[in-house]
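Why does this matter for the project? Reviewers at the last site visit asked to see concrete outputs rather than summary tables. In response, this paragraph embeds two records directly. Each consists of the residue sequence and, immediately after it, the corresponding structure tokens. Nothing has been edited or filtered.
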Amino acid sequence: MTDRHPASDAVRDAAQIIAAARRSLAPLPPLPQALAPQGVDDGYRIQSEVHRLLAPGLGPLVGYKIGCTSDVMQEYLAIPHPCAGGIPARAVHQGGVVLDAAGFVRVGVECEIAVRLGQDLVPAGAPFTGDSVADSIECYLPAIEIVDDRYVHWETLGAPTLIADDFFAAGVVLGRPVPRSAVPDLLQVQGRTLINGREAGRGSGADVLGHPHHALAWLANHLARQGTALRAGEIVMTGSLVKTVWLQAGDAATMEFSGLGSVQVAFA
């Protein structure tokens, strides 16, 4: 995400604290009062600066994640609205990857339907709807969002600070793409989270703002308000069907989706 407005000193200082914590895997405490974002718009301004600071190590953004798109996640995080974060190039992994658990503070996984765009969604098309974004989708992918509880106490930070730090985002694991024309109605897609072979939760495409396309439309409208846009080739994680599961070294996770296939990740 790019911000057309130059960053203020407070935004830069807040972003530097967040970026330093990310690099060092040091749990992030509440920001100093003078730097803490006072609303979600402030949070996104800081997030944009965090992306700039982390780009030398993580690469440019290649997509976005959307958090809090299902009732189960809104209730879990006590945040009643969706939140967006960026996906940098080096945080994208292919199914079957084994990752080092020591590279996270407290790693977790979420069960998600991802989309890859075949067409741009430019601000001139806003306001977008679930119907109007559908033709922009090239394919769907079974996906795992890797999240990291990299906070001293995330419950005390509030949505604006979590947004500033990409809302727990720590990577994505993508399965094989399925062309949009070959996918059954997403409302009927059932997703299951399996941890070490045992089911830990399940949900459906209908749990994601009523339809994953609604989540994509929300993101396209959000970016339009920021003066930017979703572009062809970008990946969008539409939000978890299942409550986050926190893991440790030695654990393996599989997400299974009816009609979409499955995807796996393990932590050593």
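We now turn to the second protein, recorded in exactly the same manner.
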Amino acid sequence: MTNLASAAAPLTASGTSLFSDAATLAEKLTETYLAVRNETERRAAPLSPEDQLVQSMPDASPAKWHRAHTTWFFEQFLLGAYGQDYTPFHPDYAYLFNSYYVSAGPRHARHQRGHLTRPGAEEVTAYRRHVDAAVVKFFHETDEGTLAGLVPLLEVGFNHEQQHQELMLTDILHAFAQNPIPPAYDPDWRFPASSRGGGEWVVLKEGIHTVGHAGDSFHFDNEKPSHRALVGPVKLARRLVTNADWLEFIDDGGYRRPTLWLMDGYAAAGSEDWQAPGHWRKIDGHWRAMTLGGLQPLDPLAPVCHVSYYEADAFARWSGKHLPTEMEWEVAARTGGLSDAFGMVWQWTRSAYAPYPGYRAVEGALGEYNGKFMVNQMVLRGSSLATPDGHSRLTYRNFFYPHHRWQFTGLRLADYGA
């Protein structure tokens, strides 16, 4: 399982897709829905029932919870709202598997998800099959006009599940990394090969650029509205910062020099005893990294990952450079000049996660999806090796708190010098 991405073909917001014109909308929706749902199960397949229960920290969730929560999403927002005479699989599952949708009702505490020995993994499988059968039945029994109106909701559901597919891998890797006898999710896994074409820097002259999502293709509400922004002059590194680069930072005492760090970052590094990126272990004087393929020798040419915003910012300062803004990243990536912009590691920017000018959340419970998190977090751009195919785009805004580093997060540098 060296390729962790899927080949699902999601619809656009206007209802068009990659399927043949002869296919009905119900057939298109069914094929897309099942492709996404099957990818979740493919990622869960290597995990034992015990693996699927573990919650190694409050920010992570058990794999079976991810599988159940994404199922609850379709049960709650599609079948419960539009299905005729649909009977929920279990009356208490809405309480167990809601996440943060306050408008949808009360929910089990996030940090206690790993306490749920019941329902077991097989019961979650039965839940998924029950909802899948009801959704496919709904597609084929609902008139095309009504289905067309539900496409935007369904696309959120598809993309929501793809987000949890990525979280399943990051969360189980964090859990496996706590094991002194390091297990492998997939023994054949290797980090994707890096592309290294072109010069050292992508140069952006000063100019006004349109950023943000434009058009009717799928996007999350936080990617809009598109707007004009002043960008440059600036140079962005064509390549990502590598493990070899990070080893130089460590050897130069980067984790011990307070002048390189933001105050909260240095406090976090001290309290958490950060001496290297997350999942690194020093064994017999040599660094190794815990990966989806188990504990492996550190590849000096691979992009560094599992670093927090605080670490990325300190490294940039040590380098005499900066982190780019998300606008600079988007403009540079739009030119095609950034190596490994997608499919390797999410890249920290120095932009706070805030609404674009004129942003308005969608109405109803789905309005809680992004907007209420627009404070105290930082934006990451690109995608990672765990991101499903078809889920990344130039305008995608990922966001995490600055101390988070269990995700596949790395960086590239920006230079504002002459």
